[in-house]
């Protein structure tokens, strides 16, 4: 006999799976009928009972702020771990799109909290998510709800960041095909009310291939399409020998990393699986674009100079910016030929 708590959890998970299957069928129908209008899907019936949805970690709310006016025109959301990187990105893309005057200041929309930062330039939102899946999960819950409350449609979300490569030269950009767990399976597992729940962490392959094509158009740095290994830890979880603790040998490490490479893994980081799973559940087109700072088959520590690393970290920004500019140009052309 199941306990009342177990029965409630089972019913909730069945409801979520049902809603997810309905959402996927609805999105496929909308996509075949029209290339636009894809909404952000929530799978939580309890939200309907809230008088106001307080996005606590963003210092925003569904009643205290006019989210539609503030964010309704968003078409591209770029997220990354570093607060400084995401500010640099919004300044970079605003200049590339000609949205703002040089040296313009971009206010932090989340200034009421010190957890995350958020900047906006035209249809682009730039948000930090911190380090690791727990921090990224909190941000994504509230970010997805924000996009839903704002009535945003046809939103593309891209995570940009840094990573450790596997058999990749430093500076290689990896566009993720699938975010895989430490056993190389495309899944994100989460414990909910004491039960392990598994979600698909595959990404939008069409979007990944679009980004790969954009890199070929830029022709400025090597870009590959491959799986990304997502771990819960920077040291032991990624097979590093230089942490405070290390219960394995160099041989153990090399065997594991080589098996990962043979399984199709090109790089490793700490947020892609939760990012992929949550975007997939909400119907958002999503991609992960990370540059490799070192080849983990050759070492554990990042030894390149600050100047070299800065150049590497700019590469995902350049690629994503090219993609956004291309998409905006294409959308504008379609609007011109669309019947009035």
Question: How does this structure look, described?
Answer:
By secondary structure, this protein is α/β, with parallel strands linked by helices. Helices cover 40% and strands 21% of the residues. It has eight helices and twelve strands. The chain has a five-stranded mixed β-barrel with strand order 6-11-10-7-12, surrounded by four helices. A two-stranded antiparallel sheet has the order 1-2. Strand 8 and strand 9 form a beta hairpin. The longest helix has 32 residues. The chain is globular and about 60 Å long.
List the main descriptive attributes of the protein structure presented here:
single chain, 340 residues, alpha/beta, 5-stranded mixed barrel, two-stranded antiparallel sheet, 8 helices, 12 strands, 40% helix
Can you lay out the helices and strands and say which pair or pack?
Layout: H1 4-33, E1 54-55, E2 60-61, H2 67-71, E3 76-80, H3 83-97, E4 118-121, E5 124-128, H4 133-149, E6 156-165, E7 173-180, E8 187-192, E9 195-200, H5 205-218, E10 223-230, H6 250-262, E11 265-269, H7 272-281, E12 285-295, H8 306-337
Parallel strand pairs: 3-5, 3-6, 6-12, 7-10, 10-11
Antiparallel strand pairs: 1-2, 4-5, 6-11, 7-12, 8-9
Helix pairs in contact: 4-7, 5-8
